Amino acid sequence: MVIENFLSRVIFGHGQAELELALPSEFKVVTLGPYPLCQYFKLPESDLGGELQLAFEDISFAPVTVAAIEPGTDKRQFKVTLNASVLKGQYKLFCLQRPEVTMDTGGLMGRLPALSAEEPAMTEEQYFRFVQLEQQRNHLNQTANGRLLVEEYNRHNDAYHHVYSTNEFLRLYWEENGTSEDMGEYTSEALKRGDVVNPKDRGFGSQGVAYNSNAFQQQIMLAVACQSAGYIEAGKAALSFSDVVKETGNTSQLSVELTGQEIYNAVESSSLTLKSLQTSPRTEVLLAALKNIATSKIASNSDIKSCQQLGYTLDAKMCQRLRAVYQGSLSQDSALPQLATHSDTIEIALERSEFDYVLTEQPDGALTLKLKSSTLSIPEMGLLSGTVYEHVKADTRFIRGLLVDRMASQLTRTLRALVRQQE
Predict the structure, then answer these.
(1) 130, 179, 322, 339: which has the fewest C-beta neighbours closer than 10 Å?
(2) Where are the domains of the chain?
(3) pLDDT per residue as tens digits for the range 184-209
(4) What is the edge-to-edge ordering of all strands in the sheet holding 49-62?
(5) Which sign does the torsion angle of CA 256, 259, 260, 264 carry?
C-alpha cells in the first residue's frame, strides 16, 4: 500500500510539480578525479614519464527540467524523463610522475589484469562477486541500521578510492602476502554457503594471518590514510563501521565466529544511529590515538593502551606501518610533478534522458528507492586530440560513466527525499 500511495502521488497527483520544485536549476560537480587514463606514459623525446590522468572541474548539467513521470514496467517501478540539457565545465590532462598503480582501487581491490586485448577485463568469478556485493547491499537496506551503514559508506566512497589510488603504502599492505585477496575469496564463498565469515582456526595468505587481525589492521590503516589526506570524516566513518562489530565481542585478537546472517542480525539489533556514526566518542578517542602513533617516532604506552581497550592490539611493526601510511598520504599527488599539462573547456549537448526507478517496501515498513537504469550518456569527448597524448589508446568510458553517475545521483537524492515524505 505504501508503494501504491507514493506512485499515485508522483504519477497521477502533483508529483511532477513537486519534483520540479525540489530539483536544483542545474546539477553540479565541483571536482571529479583525477583518474588514470593510461598506467604509464613516456613523454616523447624525454626520459620522463608517469601515469596519464584526467580531471574535471566546475561541471554543470543544465537546465534540469522534468519532461514526464510515468509508470514503469511493473507496479513497483516508475520512470522520470529529463529534458535535453548541456554539459559544461573544465578539464585537465597531465602526466603524473609517480610509480605505476597495479591495483584495481575502483573495483574488487585485486590486481589489475595485464594490458592485453586477449585477457578479459573481468573473470566470471569477479563478475559473481560484483553481483554478490550488490546483493549484500540490498540485504543491508532492509533495516534502518543497515541503510545508515550503506549511506555513510556511499558518502565517502570517493575519498576511499582516492587514498587507495595515491597511497603506495596503503596498497602495499593491502596486497601483502595475498592475505586480503584470500580473505575476499573466502568471504564470498562463505556468504554463498551460509558458513562462518570470520573463522578463528584458519589463516589467510602465505603467512596464515588471522581474519580479524588483517581486517582490523586494514581498517585503521585506511582511517589513518584518510586523516592524513584531509578526509577527516571519511577516516571517522572507516572506524565507526566497527562499532557494530565491537558489540559482537570481536577484536583484532579475539574472533567470535559469525555467519553473514548473524552479522545482519547484529546490525539490525545494534544501538547504531546517524549521530553515533558521525560523532562516536569511541571513534574520536581511537582516531586521536592512531594519529599520535602515526606522527611520533615512538608510540606512547597511553596511546597503545587506548587502542587495545578499544579492540586494537598494536605491536611495533604495526605502529611503523601506520607511520608509513600517514606519510604516504602526506606526499600524495600534490607533491608529485605534473608533466605536459593541458587544460581546456567542454560544452556538450545531451539528449533527453530517462531514469527507471524501482521501489521496495522493507520489512520495517520503510520505503527505499533504487535507480535501475538510465539512458543518460556522455559521448566520447576527443580530449586527447591535438595534444602530446593524442596517440595514447585511452578509454574514457569509466570516467564518463562516473560523470553520469554523479548527475544521476543528484536526481536520485531528490527523489529519495520525496520518498521519505511518504513515510
Answers:
(1) 130
(2) 1-98+336-423, 125-335
(3) 999 999 999 999 999 999 999 999 99
(4) 27-42, 49-62, 85-96, 338-350
(5) negative
Q: In this structure, what C-alpha cell is assigned to residue 21?
A: 520544485
Neighbours of 201 (CB within 10 A): 8
Would you state the cell numbers that stand for residue 87, as one nine-digit string? 554539459
Question: 56: Cβ–Cβ under 8 A, 6 or more apart, which residues?
Answer: 29, 31, 32, 33, 89, 90, 91, 92, 403
DSSP 8-state code for residue 334: G
CATH 3.15.10 corresponds to the domain 1-98+336-423: yes
Q: Which three cell numbers stand for residue 267?
A: 546490525
pLDDT tens readout for residues 160-190: 888 887 788 999 999 999 999 999 999 999 9
- Amino acid at position 41, single letter: F
Which of the two residues, 332 and 282, has the higher pLDDT score? 282
What is the CB-side half-sphere exposure of residue 200 using CA atoms within 13 A?
9
How far from 338 is each of 94, 119, 335, CA to CA, in Å? Answer: 6, 31, 9
pLDDT at residue 112 is higher than 80: no
Q: How far is CA 83 from CA 61, 210, 258, in A?
A: 11, 54, 49
